[in-house]
Amino acid sequence: MFTILGIPSQALFGQLLLGLINGSFYALLSLGLAIIFGLLNIINFAHGAQYMMGAFLTWMLLSYFGVGYWWALLLVPVLVGIFGLVLERLLISRLHHLDHLYGLLLTFGLALIIQGLFRIRYGVSGLPYGIPLTLAGGQNLGFMFLPNYRLWVILLSLSVCLATWLVEKTKLGAYLRAATENPTLVQAFGINVPRLITLTYGGGVGLAALAGVMAAPIYSVNPNMGADMIITVFAVVVIGGMGSIAGSIVTGFALGLIEGLTKLLYPEASSTVIFIIMAIVLLLKPAGLFGRRV
Amino acid sequence: MKLSAILLAGLFAGAFTTGARAEIDVKIGILNDRSGVYADLSGEGSVIAARMAVEDFKATDKGIRVNIVSADHQNKPDVGSSIARQWYDQEGVDAIFDVPTSSVALAVSQVTREKNKIFIDSGAGAADLTGKQCSPNTIHWTYDTWALANGTGGAMVKQGGDTWFFITADYAFGHALERDTTALVEKSGGKVLGSVKHPFPGSDFSSFLLQAQASGAKVIGLANAGGDTINTIKQAAEFGITQGGQKLAGLLIFITDIHALGLQVAQGLVLTEAFYWDLNDATRAWSKRFAERSDGKMPSMVHAGVYASVLHYLKAIEATNSKDASVVMAKMKEMPTDDPLFGKGQVRIDGRVTHDMYLFEVKKPEESKGDWDYYKLLATIPAAEAFRPLNEGGCPLVK
């Protein structure tokens, strides 16, 4: 065993790995936010609530219908995604021609309502949800005990991020980007832009719900889980650059690592370190690390 | 004109004191967490408990009209103290009850003293409320960090847990709980190997658990509460902490936490509480009535404390026929406490209420007969031993 900066290497590796796991959630959530902002120009404050809905739906599927984790992984993003589609059609689409601020206020209000409803029904202490049996137990890596489930979280999150990034490079991605730049022209080419936008919102919401399913076995399933997370995730998006997909993925993982290190070096600051970085980035590079200047 | 008005007023006052008992209007405020990590253990349940106390006391028959108001302090001291100020200054609130989250409780205690009103705390933990920061206007009813350290900490040390590592919530309560438990562990010949302070509230504790694991301490003391404790215990199970031979000491665990964790994860935990619904016939009968009003949820010790403290407050008002803070406070300290939930006890000069405390172990899933059947009683800690001795707290009111 050797030491780096006076910290035993074992502890350091362990903390870095844990940071990466938290980073997976940041990446997945900020990815959804970035997609929605990039195409709809909506700052989706309801993202945390939709993540929370994902976790709750996972719990409900098991408790009311006996549907386990693996099916939930498939069903929940679809169901919450559909909820997102309805939301977009009924409410958000009416704000397209207005200032950003209106979208922000609407989604923030929606988040409060959704959280409030869950709080009235289920309280705040949270509901128990076990780790799926196939992923129970863990690996002794020598420097730490890594639960199998956490390993799964990193792998799944990485693959989803990669897949989304690839989709953006395809023709579909090109349509989406074109629709952001000049919707009228794209529509003239026979592409149904409003439908494209609705589907994108649904997709972004589905990603949040997927993160919720992944969170259910390790964090407590409670109505505030999204509100606790969303502020940090917004900071991640701001640091990465609003609307940049690759930026939000890389920043998500990187900030998870930095937060992990802070928990080891000066734990009291671990909840603020991301905001300190945000302030510095905004001072030096107002468009974010990966953002383009508007 | 002025003179006659004064005479008239005097006449009325005389009529009231000699004739039927005067009507007293009392306004009490339930100030607690209604949306955050402590909302289940305090929240609306405390308002229900206060209403039950007013009904059981038959206040209206005794000429006391009680008006209950409530608010959410969001676990923020600035929010809590500004609500308290507004209640005292503008809304005529006479006494504030509950107030979980020690940092908020200490702030409200200050405001109450400044305005010369009454504050009876049930939800907060910091023993400083009746220690160095005690106030002639503050009573601390249900539990405190010293009592928790003494109960759970003492039991763990007796079982051979002589080396400790703390995972502590980074605010007044966590600090007080760590301090009091450290004192107890060291007094019993044990050693504290280290501690880590986490931001409050938190959600991921794996990093802190890993540090606790690496310390090699026999006992990992959780000096946090509510949602934070739930998450820590859940993630400790995931990281195989207890299989590795280390023991978890949940220094403050409420029954609502056990309900959220499920017995599968929580089984075997040793904890200290001031109240459990299934202690005796009186607690069962009251808890059943409480549950009927709160969607079947059983009361926490904080809810029980609000009930008992409102009852004691109203008794003092009845006995003195006054709602003047100093008069009522003197009466509350002079009169022994007696209620169906905590039994007999007293309010000490420093504001500490003494009553029995209980050491429980969480049942295994197969031992539980159903929802809310969670605890086995290990020991009853008699009132005289359960709380910090009067002369050790450093309260200036104790001469």
TrEMBL record, chain A:
Topology in the lipid bilayer: Multi-pass membrane protein
Keyword Transport annotated: yes
Record carries keyword Methyltransferase: no
Pfam family, one: BPD_transp_2
Subcellular location: Cell membrane
Transmembrane segments: 12-35, 68-87, 99-118, 149-167, 196-219, 231-258, 265-284
Keywords assigned: Amino-acid transport, Cell membrane, Membrane, Transmembrane, Transmembrane helix, Transport
Recorded family membership: Belongs to the binding-protein-dependent transport system permease family. LivHM subfamily.
PANTHER family reported in the protein's UniProt record: ABC TRANSPORTER ATP-BINDING PROTEIN, BRANCHED-CHAIN AMINO ACID TRANSPORT SYSTEM PERMEASE PROTEIN LIVH
Name this polypeptide is given: Branched-chain amino acid ABC transporter permease
Source organism of the structure: Dongia soli
From TrEMBL, chain B:
Coiled coil: none
Cleavable signal peptide: 1-22
Protein name per Swiss-Prot or TrEMBL: ABC transporter substrate-binding protein
Domain Leucine-binding protein span(s) in chain numbering: 26-363
Pfam families per UniProt: Peripla_BP_6 (PF13458)
Classification via InterPro entries: BCAA_transport, Leu-bd, Peripla_BP_I
Keywords carried by this UniProt record: Amino-acid transport, Signal, Transport
Family as reported in the entry's similarity comment: Belongs to the leucine-binding protein family.
UniProt entry tagged with the keyword Protein transport: no
SUPFAM superfamilies to which the protein is assigned, alphabetical: Periplasmic binding protein-like I
Highest taxon, organism lineage: Bacteria
